[in-house]
């Protein structure tokens, strides 16, 4: 049992955890699930970066760190993260009506094919 627990904290395992493996339902959200996602992000898991970025941006009102995590996922060719950042730019989420920028959103580079 101890070896399995240690393996679950191994950086390679955290980096390669699947989308389904990191998906946490809202009613199951806890501080430990938050720490788990942070560990996955620190290990370089782009799915976790996108997922935690969306949660921080839209649910926790932590717009800057949420957008930064989504950008990190987008740089890793996560298509949903690229789309989400374009929507944020287009809508000017978190800003005023004057901060909407459709040109910037449309000029966001597409994610390279995976």
Automatic annotation (TrEMBL):
<dbReference type="InterPro" id="IPR044508">
    <property type="entry name" value="At5g50450/At1g67340-like"/>
</dbReference>
<dbReference type="Pfam" id="PF23310">
    <property type="entry name" value="TPR_27"/>
</dbReference>
<feature type="region of interest" description="Disordered">
    <location>
        <begin position="94"/>
        <end position="114"/>
    </location>
</feature>
<feature type="domain" description="At2g35280-like TPR">
    <location>
        <begin position="28"/>
        <end position="92"/>
    </location>
</feature>
<dbReference type="InterPro" id="IPR057136">
    <property type="entry name" value="At2g35280_TPR_dom"/>
</dbReference>
<protein>
    <recommendedName>
        <fullName>At2g35280-like TPR domain-containing protein</fullName>
    </recommendedName>
</protein>
<feature type="compositionally biased region" description="Low complexity">
    <location>
        <begin position="97"/>
        <end position="108"/>
    </location>
</feature>
């Amino acid at each position: 049992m101890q070896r399995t627990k240690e393996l679950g904290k191994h950086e390679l395992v955290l980096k390669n955890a699947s989308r389904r493996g990191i998906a946490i339902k809202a009613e199951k959200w806890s501080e430990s699930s938050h720490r788990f996602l942070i560990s996955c992000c620190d290990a370089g898991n782009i799915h976790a970066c996108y997922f935690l970025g969306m949660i921080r941006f839209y649910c926790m009102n932590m717009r800057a760190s949420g957008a930064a995590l989504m950008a990190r996922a987008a740089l890793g060719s996560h298509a949903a993260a690229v789309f989400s950042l374009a929507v944020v730019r287009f809508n000017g989420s978190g800003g005023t009506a004057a901060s909407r920028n459709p040109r910037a959103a449309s000029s966001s580079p597409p994610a390279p094919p995976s």
